[in-house]
Amino acid sequence: xxxxxxxxxxxxxxxxxxxxxxxxxxxxxxxxxxxxxxxxxxxxxxxxxxxxxxxxxxxxxxxxxxxxxxxxxxxxxxxxxxxxxxxxxxxxxxxxxxxxxxxxxxxxxxxxxxxxxxxxxxxxxxxxxxxxxxxxxxxxxxxxxxxxxxxxxxxxxxxxxxxxxxxxxxxxxxxxxxxxxxxxxxxxxxxxxxxxxxxxxxxxxxxxxxxxxxxxxxxxxxxxxxxxxxxxxxxxxxxxxxxxxxxxxxxxxxxxxxxxxxxxxxxxxxxxxxxxxxxxxxxxxxxxxxxxxxxxxxxxxxxxxxxxxxxxxxxxxxxxxxxxxxxxxxxxxxxxxxxxxxxxxxxxxxxxxxxxxxxxxxxxxxxxxxxxxxxxxxxxxxxxxxxxxxxxxxxxxxxxxxxxxxxxxxxxxxxxxxxxxxxxxxxx
Length: 428
What we know:
alpha+beta; disordered C terminus; 5 helices; 6-stranded antiparallel sheet
């Protein structure tokens, strides 16, 4: 331990040993005005608040006003921001088999889709919060996630934390395991991760989902016409122009309408899902795989201080790939101050090996300190500090419990002798 550590215990909080109470909610963000918006500050970049060019009723989220902008989303939004986000199976569009936000969820959330677009010069969506955490420890967060689509290795989401400008801690990080990710276990392929819970009528997991915008009459109009009609075209993946995708075998065509030009297959395959806080262990992915249902993921934050900064960055490069987070909650435990313990120089709550190491590693340092408020007769770390450790070995802030490792008197004498012998060798 460095001399700086000895000086650091002069701080007011270090004059006594800390104790933690039960967790309490310190703040958060529900993305709804007046609902869990408990933070010191929040900035959203780019700010798409109020961007609803299609009159959908969303509080914002769209990047532009062109037809394709309906698929370029970042910001606080609701289910009306785009049909790729809304699941209307139980509502106005029974054929809808793609979406996250069901009809009964009408509040706001933070939405991402195709942040890399011509209307977004920074290419990402970024949110920064600050929270007052003074007087609290054992900090933690929880966040709800949902996502649906064929994500790629370079679709990324991170949320980091820093206390008082200190080191950055990664709380949440996404992963996609596909053919270009070197971390992908052997045997995984592009079709890994069928994640919709519903099965087809045979009881087998569904391998694709129907495209509600595919119109059989339009497909027949294209494929049966002697010439290609206006507003329609064969897809690039249909080289022989027979109306079928050369790779999947699905019926497919290209349609141009008032919203833009769209490739319209009859089905979409489920491809690579996105994971949160995942790693590969013995050839298997361990973590939270996101799907069209919200998953709550928790993360701990190390350290204490006054101001906590959370930074969220989402970087997504195509659609349809809706990615949603909601209900950020910050919790912590109040630090209460109890009487200090003589000899507990590392403020661990018990006089033990860490305190002995601290004294020996700083022997002779000109750093008068006393976390217990008792005056020292000498200005340096020396025999008096060592005696305080040895004479109070095993002491705790609470009553000692049966079985605590408290050395016998002979052991204390041996520790003292070994400590002094080590110091003599070090200074000889």
